[in-house]
Amino acid sequence: MRFETRHKSHHNSSGLIGKYYPQRRITEQDFLNKLSEEPKDVPRAIYVHTPYCDKICSFCNLNREQLSGSLDSYADYLVGEFDKYGQYRYFKEKGVDVIYFGGGTPTVYKNDQLERILQSVNRNIIFAEGYEFTLETTLHNLNPEKIELMNKYGVNRLSVGIQSFSDEGRKFYNRTYTKAEVKERLLDLKSKFNGEVCIDIIYNHPTQTVEDAREDARVIKELDLGSSSFYSLMVHEGSTLSHDIKDEKVKLQDDLKRERELHDAFVKELTTDSDYYVLELTKIAKAGRDNYKYIKTRTFGGDTFPIGVGAGGNVDNISVFRMKKEMGMFVEKSEYQQRLDRFNGLFQFPTVEKDVVNEILNFTEQKVFEEVMSELKADGFVTENETHYNLTSDGLFWGNNISREVLTTVVEKTLEITKK
Asked: Quick check: bond before 310 cis, omega within 30?
């Protein structure tokens, strides 16, 4: 077997380039100077992080904490950030294609807090034609007033953390509501919200069956949802789940065969006709509906402007990570590092265009790339035609491993060749 351990997230291949080419730290003033320049003509996203939830999923250890008290100060902070950066040429002279509020739970704010934040977005940001404006949410954090506020201020996409429709799965993930209540609330949400409703699914919990995976897919089709992400359960250090495993309260099956059966059952059931298709490694979308512009902007060389504690992104050749309200890390990337970042992003999708690869890689890199793709083709992970490489079902399951291997092989073998 080519791969023994499955990488379940694209984060397993992100950041690898820094191992070979250390990045250069710069100052916040350098970053502000960049914002004062004429904006480049590239796709642009804003990522806004809310590191708070009022109920923590069992598997989660992300940059978030249990809400205890008012979020007035954090809401004021976000409003201030939009007001501050909205004064720069970067936002005054060019529209934004994507706004994505992640977390945490961005709908955990009270109605008046949420309205102040959305007002600050509209006050400072130019919306590009065909923009996408997403808020992540849970069902229990929504009310009719919040939905109306989102409709009023241009939110046109919701990503709802469902994780599982089965009652047993929902209990394991520490989710609110039963399967019947979830379905009812999603239908009600669709009737009141003007935009696209998408969900997250996490498969491979201890008691999940193949039929459970199929049923999750059937419900998605029954409710006519715009898309669904689908991730295999990951155990993160510091999560409730990790502690339960250590205390032997929960026992997970480390069984690749079972994980593959659940993955394939969900994908096959949801894509059994032409209505739904695999948009990227971990997302299936309904044709003509959800475009998920956020991931395309992040992976195809666009900017992602980060706002909020725990947010990360980039503006042109400057990477930014917000560690605290008044503290950020700013790093300058070389043209080569940017080029490889873009190359790595291609492999989050089931189809890779040869022309795009050839635009990014130089002659030596292209030759190394073709060699590793020939090996992957021989092993049944990809097929090839005149214009594209396409992941097979094996390739889709092992997609993050393939992304990591292709990137490291191209970088390391090219370095070997150029040193001779």
From this structure: no
Sheet of 388-391, strand order: 351-353, 388-391, 382-384
Long-range contact set of residues 247-255: C-beta below 8 Å, sequence gap at least 24: 250/206, 251/206, 252/206, 253/206
Q: What is the pLDDT of residues 254-300, one digit of tens each?
A: 788 999 999 999 999 999 988 999 999 999 999 999 999 999 998 88
Whether the CB-CB separation of 264 and 270 falls below 8 Å is answered with no
The distance of Cα 396 from the centroid of its chain, to the nearest Å, equals 17
- Output the CA torsion 90→92→98→101 (10° steps): 90
By three-state DSSP, how is residue 415 classified? helix
Q: What are the DSSP E strand ranges found in 86-155?
A: 96-103, 127-137
Residues with Cβ within 8 Å of residue 248, at least 6 apart in sequence: none
State pTM to two decimals. Answer: 0.92
Q: Could you give the 3-state DSSP secondary structure of residue 2?
A: coil
SS (H, E, C) 196-238: EEEEEEEECCCCCCHHHHHHHHHHHHHCCCCEEEEEECCCCCC
Tell me which H or E stretch contains 105.
Answer: none
Alpha carbons 281 and 322: distance in angstroms, whole number: 27
